[in-house]
Every structure is written in structure tokens, then in C-alpha cells.
Design brief:
The structure is a homodimer. By secondary structure, chain A is mainly α. Chain A has a single domain, classed as Orthogonal Bundle (434 Repressor (Amino-terminal Domain)). Chain A is built from four helices and no strands. Chain A is globular. The interface between A and B is medium-sized, with 22 and 22 residues.
């Protein structure tokens, strides 16, 4: 399901920019390594649901809102 | 975030029963080991987003619908 990671990463990147975070500021706020943030956003890693919640908490959005619809994959 | 895994596991178990799957049948359909299904449903493991999609596909529901709201955790 490489498409899933790609679509999820795209959604996270879009929301991060919407909220005005640079990758550096986002790394600091989430406590996730900056290079790992890059890998998430490029869909190179398959994150855990827990990590999704940590990201959503910083982005002040519901975790579910970051998930691509199954039907679009 | 132990509460997250617990709440997510509860939602998965509820939907599995709703759809009429025994744990055995669900294990067979998802290709996930039966004992691991038990651990997921008891909130003992932190699954990946990809695994969530595999589970939702078998349960014929949107992955997002299985996620507990952040505000309820």
C-alpha cells in the first residue's frame, strides 16, 4: 500500500503548511526528527496510528481528517 | 497513549462482531495471526496506519470510522 503512505504524507504536508509550520518548526513541535518528517511527507515510511495522533494534535485537527478515503486508493 | 490503542481496539472488535466475524474468521480474512488480532483488540499493540486500512478493507468500512476522536482520549 505504497499509495496510502504517499496520500497520507501529502495530506500531512498540506495541513502543516496550512497551519504555517515549516518542517523545522513542525519537527520541534512534534518531537519527530526533521528528516523523518520529510520521509513521512514523501510517503517513504508507514507510520503508526499513535504517531498519526501526535501529528494531528500538533496540527490541531482530527486524526481521521488526515486519512485518505479507502476508495480513493 | 495507551488509551488510544484501547479505544481503537474496542472499535475494531465492535465492528468485527457487527459484521459477524469470529476472531478466527477475521484472522483468516485479514491474514493477521489470531493471537495478534486479540492483542490489537485488547489495545496491547500500536498498529500502523497500513494495518488499519487492511483491517478496514475486510470490515468494509472507512479506516477513519474506526479511529476514536482525539477529544475523547
Amino acid at each position: 500500500m505504497e499509495e496510502l503512505a504517499t496520500a497520507l504524507g501529502r495530506n500531512i504536508r498540506q495541513k502543516r503548511k496550512e497551519k504555517g509550520f515549516s518542517q523545522d518548526a513542525f519537527a520541534l513541535a512534534t518531537g519527530i526528527d526533521r528528516s523523518y518528517i520529510g520521509r513521512i511527507e514523501r510517503g517513504e515510511v508507514n507510520i503508526t496510528v499513535e504517531k498519526l495522533y501526535e501529528i494531528a494534535a500538533v496540527l490541531q485537527c482530527e486524526p481521521a481528517s488526515l486519512l485518505p478515503a479507502q476508495t480513493t486508493l
